[in-house]
Structure formats: structure tokens, C-alpha cells
Specification:
The complex is a heterodimer of chains A (about 300) and B (about 300).
Chain A (H helix, E strand, L loop, with lengths): L1 H35 L6 H5 L9 H8 L1 H34 L4 H9 L6 H12 L14 H8 L14 H29 L3 H9 L4 H29 L3 H7 L15 H10 L3 H29 L3
Helix pairs in contact in A: 1-13, 3-13, 4-8, 4-10, 4-12, 6-11, 8-10, 10-13, 12-13
Chain B lengths: L2 H52 L3 H4 L14 H9 L2 H32 L5 H11 L4 H15 L5 H5 L6 H12 L3 H9 L4 H12 L1 H17 L2 H6 L8 H7 L10 H33 L4
Helix pairs in contact in B: 1-14, 3-14, 4-8, 4-11, 11-14
Classes of the chains: A mainly alpha (about 300), B mainly alpha (about 300).
Chain lengths: ~300, ~300
Amino acid sequence: MVESKHKWKAWLYLAPAIILLIIFTVWPIINTVRMAFLEGYDSMDAAGGMQYSVSIENFTKVLQYKGFLTCLKNTMLLCVLTVPLSTILALLIAVCLNAIKPLQRLLQTIFFLPYVTNSIAIGMVFAAMFNMVMPTPNDPTSVGIINNVIEFFGGEPINWINAGSSYWANITVMVIYIVWNALPFKILVLLGGLQSINKQYYDAAKVDGTSRRRVFTRITVPLLSPMLTYVVITGFIGGFKEYSSIVGIFGEDMGPAGNSGSLNTMVGFIYEALQNSKVGRASAAALILFGIIFVVTMLNMYVSKKKTHY
Amino acid sequence: MSELQNKTMQEKDLKKVSTHQKVGKILVKVLLYTFLMVMALIVIFPFYFMLISSVKTLPEYNRAVPTLWPEFIRLRNYVDAFNTGNLGQLFINTMIVGIVSTILSLVITVLSAFAFARLEFKGKNALFAALLGTMMIPGELFTITNYVTVTRFGWLESYTVLIVPFLVSVFYIYLLRQNFMQIPNELYLAAKVDGMSDIKYLWKVMIPLALPTLISITILKMMGAWNSYVWPRLVANEGEYQLITNGLRNAFTDAEGNTDIPVQMAAVAIVSAPLFLVFIFLRKYIMKGVSRSGIKG
């Protein structure tokens, strides 16, 4: 009796979650696939009762579309540059943090600060730092704080993000901002991993007189490899969905003034198509994004399985 | 050479080695601290820049050689920021969305996690596996159809559209279920024998024991509301339901594209302050929740 009473109760407790998930998670998966395969699906026309034929035209159109290829290139480039850079830097910082005692907690807190920020808001701060202040009549030489630093070390000021700035200058700014933003999470996970490594390994290495570098490459990194894998996979997933950090620095034009869209990403492309009610195209692009993320994640897991030591 | 001399020589050698080691150790420590300090400075510099810029006058900000400390502290920037950005309304909207969605989300999460952790029913494991499977799919894929759906429901430009679609988080259910599973089943059976209802048991036993996880979920959910940008921009970008991040980006740029950066920085500081306060008081829960989630917001 009690058991059967439990059964309907369980479903009662699950009901709110399941109903919401069916409407906002399960149905979207089915519907997005459906719309992606309906030729030129447009939400406005569809509401007006228009019928569509099934084809893969959305996919071929998206892949031929120059705007999409720019987005794909930007996204890939940012991923390939920021994930290794932020992982290595985070690993270095975590290892150093793990090796010190005084000030460890304070420094740990400081390194976590970028996480508790709004990526649009702090993006605006970075934009201000890299900004070339427009030369005013009484002050024609203002070039922004980063350029001040460059000049201080004897370099030439660079047009980072203003009108007429080069693509690589823009990408450099984005890489710096994204790495700055990605560090806290990676340091947190890697430091947690380091602190859980059994001290006996290090004691044994000490007895054997093993060099620091060897201890690092033969003990620390192998024992940390599950965390490294985790950090790299989540880094790639986040990197492929890069969007709001670019809005933070360049605004909704997704590029420097006069060259809007030049830094657009896959997610930016999807939202743009969606806002123009080109839902079929947006769906196809989202499925392509999902495919890429899936393949990269599987690849990472495959590589790490071969290299992971537990 | 006498035996004694030989011995002292050996001792000297040993001492030499140990001082060598000591010097090496100190050197390593110095290097470690220097590296960490430099990195820490780079990490906090943007915050420092934001704060000093937010109290500068525009002419001082625009100087060729920047001042590292403002000559004149102009707090008026904060008032200007609050007024031009209409930050008050944006604050209220964001708080309403954050609080309501957190409470509803907690109720749904607790009930589902309880069902998955304690109750037996047909297809439980299959259903749970299916839920975990949806976590692999990028959110953008849902957004497209959800945008079409909420448009059809006539929800655009409302609080509902900002709250309802994201109430259920599979990740939070998973997190809380793991926590509930650690609570011994005997407690539940004992409570049943005593004739305690499920809800009472949940409230009196499970929730207090899982409180740290619930606090982590609350903070992450609130931070999510505070930082959400993409969805609100799609569904409530113009009118009275705009959220703080959306209002922030363009409010301080005039028609010619010029930005009063000190005022803008003051607005950024105002928007960042609540997050920092929460972080200072609830550091432990945030870091614990984050290290397990891997998702920002």
C-alpha cells in the first residue's frame, strides 16, 4: 500500500520540473531540429500559415554565407588562443599558490575576483582602458592608459579598439579580456586538485632527491590531469559560446566603429538571425555549433583518457 | 691530516651545502611571491582603474599623463550615473526577477531532488539519465524555440518571460540529489514510522542538512539574474522590464558615439558593488558552488 502511494507522490513532486522541462527543454530540442530542416523557415511567415518543404538548404546556406564563416573563424581563433593560454597561466598560478603559506588566502581571493563580475560591465572597463581618447583641442595626445604604459616602456601607442583599428589588435584585446575572465574558475579547480594530492608522493620524491621540474612533470601534472581535462573541456565549451565579452568591449555592433560585425561569433550569428526572424537559419547554425562542441568534447575526452593517470 | 681536521672539513662542507640549499629556497620563494604579486596586480588593476576613473572629472580623465590618484574627487558622477542610466528602475526589475526566480527554482529543485533521492518509482534511473543528457546541449539551441514559444504565449516584455523559462536547472537538481543521497535512508524510514509526512520530513530534516548546497544554489541563481544579458535582450529590451546589464551597455554613449567615461565607470561600479558585497560575506559558498558547476551565472 505504502509503495503504491509513493509512486503517484513521486510524480507529483516531479510534476513542476517535468512540465517546465517539456515546454522549455524537450520541445525546443525537437522543434529546433524540425525548423533547421524546413527550407527558409521564417517565424513571421510561419505564423501567417505558410508551409515549408523539408531540405538541408538552411545548412548549406549558412555554410556558404560569408558572415557565418567570419563568425566561425573568430570563434575558433578565440578558442584556440584563450583556452591553452588561460589553462597554462592558471596552472602556474595554482602551483605557486599551493607552494606558499603566508598570504595564500588573500591572494586566492584576489585571483577569484574577476569571477564575481558582470562580463558586460567589466568589459566596459577594459574598453575604457584600451580606448584611444579622442584628441581634444587642449589635449591632443591622450591615448588611454594601456598606451600610456606602452609609451612608458618606449613603445608606440596602438589603436586597439577605435575606428580603423586592425583585426589583430582587436583580437589581442579580446584574448586578454577573455583570459582575465577565465582565470578564476580554472585557478579554483586546479588549486582544489593540487590540495587533494597526497603529500606522500612529494615526500617520496624528496627522499629520492628528484628535481623540481621532474616533480612537476612526473607527479603534479599527471595527478592533476582529471582536473586539467575538466578545465580544458569547460573552457572549450565556454569559448565556443563566446558572445557577451565581445558585447562588453565592442558593444552590440560586435566590432570597432565603422567595421561592425567583424568580431561577431557563432552565438552572435544565431541571435542576429533569430532577431530577423530567420529562425530556420538560426536553428541550423545552433545545430552546427552543437555538433562542433560535441566533437571537440569527445576529442578532448579521448585524448585525456589516453593521457590521464588516476 | 689529522682525524679531527678531516671531521671539521666534512662539517664545513655539509654547512656549505645547507646554506646553498637555504639560499636556493629563499630565492624560489622570492620568485614565487614576485610572480604571484605581479599577476595579482594585473588581475585587480581593472577594478582600481574603474574606481579612480569613476571619481575623476572628465578633463582630468582625458589628460595625456594619467593621474594615479584623482586630484579632485567628484562623487557627483555617481549621482549622474544613477540618473542618466535610470539605474533605480533597472535595479528593482533585476531584484524582482532574481528573488522570484530563485524562490520558485528552489522549491522545484528541492521537490525533484527529493523524488530522485528518496522515492522509488518506475523509470526513475532512465528519467534521471535523460535529464543529465540535456545538460550537454548548449543553451542557444533552446533559446531559439523558446523565443518563438514565448512570443506565441504573448509573454514578451513581462516579468514572466524573464523568470519562467529558466526555473528548472538540471544541474541544481543533480547537485541537491547528490547531497540528499548522503543523508542516511534510516532517518527517512524512522520518520515514516513516526507518521511524519514527506513534506514535514523534507522541511525538518533534509533541508537543514542540505543547507550549504541550497545557499550555493541561491547565490548562483541570483548572480545569474544579475549577469543575464542575452535572453533579456531578446525578450524585454526596450520597455519597463529591462534588466540591469542590458540598460548598462548603451546608456552612457550619446548620439554621436561619445562616452562620458567617468560617469560610465561610476555606473559600472554601482552595478558591480552588490556582487562584491555578496562575495565578501558568502565567499565559501560561492567558491564551493562554482568549483562544481563550471558555468558562469
